[in-house]
Amino acid sequence: MDRTRDYFKCYYDPRFIAWTWAGVAVLLVATLAGLAFEKGSIGRFVCAGVQASTMGALIVSAVLRMRHLDELQRRIQLESIAIAFAVGASAITGWGYFEHAGAPRFDWGLWIWPILVALWASAFVVTRRRYQ
Amino acid sequence: MKNKLRDLRSERGWSQGELAERLAVSRQTVNAIETEKYDPSLPLAFKIARQFSRPIEEIFEDGDGRRR
């Protein structure tokens, strides 16, 4: 119970959560709106621009949030990101070799972010346990 | 690094959460220091020393230092 409260105290900030969900909503709307335009049209490019800039804003807000964490929580986050980066880079490079060997091409541009976030979350759970 | 944080905290009857609040860190950080899974930074070690009004070397013990 105590541990759960502590977890929320460190990571739960209503403004940050609200901002993140707003960002996700903008991403979804821009994605759906983009589908209404032809590929290569200005409308499609505008929607892609909204998606890319929202993504950037979400990353900046996550980094700013990390500045409020204490030194151990920052270390846990740093280790988690390093693990996610190493595993993600290895997976992409590894699959690149297979693509050169004839395996089907994978759309990394679309999936790299969800994959990295999933790896980051998994690495966070493992890293956090080391300090409990 | 060995430390007497748990003993000092118990002497004052503080919970880990209370000490964490006084140090402006998470309870997990206090727990990790007490169980010696994490060595605090120098600024945090000074903060802990000030909180208990003791010199740092009285709270934190460097195992290597004693052998010299």
Describe the structure.
The complex is a heterodimer of chains A (132) and B (68). Chain A contains five helices and no strands. The longest helix of chain A has 31 residues. Chain A is mainly alpha-helical and 132 residues long. Chain A starts with a helix and ends with a helix. With 68 residues, chain B is mainly alpha-helical. Chain B contains six helices and two strands; from the N terminus they run βαααααβα. The longest helix of chain B has 10 residues. The two termini of chain B are 16 Å apart. The model of chain B has no long low-confidence stretch (mean pLDDT 90). At the A-B interface, helix 1 and helix 4 of A face helix 2 and helix 3 of B.
Name the features:
heterodimer, A: 132 residues, mainly alpha, 0% strand, B: 68 residues, two-stranded antiparallel ribbon, 2 strands, globular
Question: What's a concise summary of this model?
Answer:
The complex is a heterodimer of chains A (132) and B (68). Chain A is 84% helix and 0% strand.
What's the helical proportion of residues of chain A? over 70%
Radius of gyration of chain A over all CA atoms, rounded: 18 Å
Strand-residue fraction of chain A? under 5%
Distance between the termini of chain B: 16 Å
Instruction: Give the mean pLDDT of chain B.
Output: 90
How are helices and strands ordered from N to C of chain B? EHHHHHEH
Average pLDDT number of chain A: 87
Order of helices and strands of chain A: HHHHH
Overall body shape of chain B:
globular
Q: Write down how many β-strands of chain B occur, each being a DSSP E stretch of 2 or more residues.
A: 2
Runs of chain B in which pLDDT lies below 50 for 5 or more consecutive residues are none
User: Which secondary-structure class do the elements of chain A indicate?
Assistant: mainly alpha
Instruction: Tell me the radius of gyration of chain B.
Output: 11 Å
* Main sheet summary of chain B: 2 strands, antiparallel
Oligomer: heterodimer
Number of helices of chain A: 5
